[in-house]
Amino acid sequence: MTSNCQLCPRRCQADRESGRLGFCQAGPRPRVFRWGPHFGEEPPICGDAGSGAVFFSRCTMKCLYCQNSPWSWRGEGRDLEISELTAIFRDLAVKHRCGNWNLVSPTPYLPAVRAALAPLRAEGIRLPVVFNSSGYERAETLCEYRDLCDIALVDLRYANDATALAASCAPGYTAAARAAVKHLWETLGPLDAEEPGRATRGVIVRVLVLPGHADEAIENLGWLAAECSNEVHISVMSQYAPAFEALKTPPFDRVVTEEEYEEVAEAAADFGFEHGWIQGFGSRDASSDLVGENMSAGEGTVGAAP
Ligand code: SF4
User: Fold this and answer.
1) How far is the CA of 106 from the centre of ligand 1 (A)?
2) 96, 163, 201, 258: least CB-packed within 10 angstroms?
3) How much distance in Å is there from the Cα of 29 to the middle of ligand 1?
4) 41 close to 91: Cβ distance less than 8 angstroms
5) Which residue ranges have their beta carbon within 6 Å of ligand 1?
6) What separation in Å is there between the alpha carbon of 34 and the centre of ligand 1?
7) Domain boundaries defined on the chain
8) How far is CA 172 from CA 176, 177, 204, 274, in A?
9) Which atom, in ligand 1's list, is nearest to the CA of 6?
């Protein structure tokens, strides 16, 4: 898969084994920036021991507001042998007793992740696998690597390809992300538990409200309700903070206004979503250094009394 790489929608056909890298610049070996128990995901993903997160370096998108740019854009991290990745997964499961293995932006490395988990699974060490993704995926790849996705934690970020191209250099994002979400919903179905750390299967769709583009978040919620179901757990996030190239690129150089955010929150209610989380506008944490990774747990359950 990495000598003619077509893992993501770009389908570069890069020969990563021989050093001819593709758009994401991922090499032949899995490159990891950091790993450890993580407590910043939605509550069903994070129990007392946290989610066993592995943050992979490189990314198939290049978002101008990326808050992970040191490793996503610049590739900080370390190339690992498969056995080293196995040891990380083992530590997360056995030493830290995390509730799941949380693969953060793993797409270029899926063959390596499968190879790394194989010996653990053979020993009977098994955790649910969280596939934590920007949404820019190929349904074919998700199908091929079905064993690496028990819980999908997936973004629906744009409904307009021109925005996706300008903000994330991701041609065809809308169709790709929607096909991926539809596939995941049809294969995994609703989240099987809402108690902290108890989810073992299902889908959470994240909607990060972007400044000047609240209409796209609303359009995606409408699409999700119509084409999948309003039974999907949604996670609407207000925490966008300008960073990196966005600091000089309007409208991404500002935070989301309360009015924009309220429009999206109201649309979620209007479309009948009853499961998930709507992050309180005031809970936005300007010091967050990881978009989508530090949301406050347990806040703003959709449909809860004010
Ligand atoms: S994962 Fe990387 S190399 Fe493979 S198709 Fe996507 S961008 Fe190209």
Assistant:
1) 11
2) 258
3) 13
4) no
5) 5-8, 10-12, 14, 22-24, 26, 60, 107-108
6) 21
7) 28-283
8) 6, 9, 22, 30
9) 5
Measuring CA to CA, which residue among 302, 283, 166, 178 is closest to residue 235?
302
Residues 6 or more apart whose Cβ sits within 8 Å of residue 118: none
Which of 51, 64, 10, 7 shows the shortest CA–CA distance to 213? 64
Residues 55 and 103: their CA atoms lie apart, in Å, by: 7
pTM: 0.91
The CA 133 to ligand 1 mean position distance, Å, reads: 14
Residue nearest to atom 4 of ligand 1 (CA): 5
Residues 6+ apart with CB under 8 A from 99: 45, 46, 47, 49, 50, 51, 52, 127, 128, 197, 198
Q: Classify 297 as helix, strand or coil.
A: coil
Distance CA 109, CA 104 (A): 11
Q: Whose CA is nearest to atom 1 of ligand 1?
A: 108
CATH number for the domain running over 28-283: 3.20.20.70
- Per residue in 87-96, pLDDT (tens digit) is 999 999 999 9
Q: Could you report the per-residue pLDDT of 151-206, keeping only the tens digit for each?
A: 999 999 999 999 999 999 999 999 999 999 999 999 999 999 888 889 999 999 99
For residue 108, the ligand 1 atom closest to its alpha carbon is: 1
Residue 115: how many CB atoms within 10 A of its CB? 15
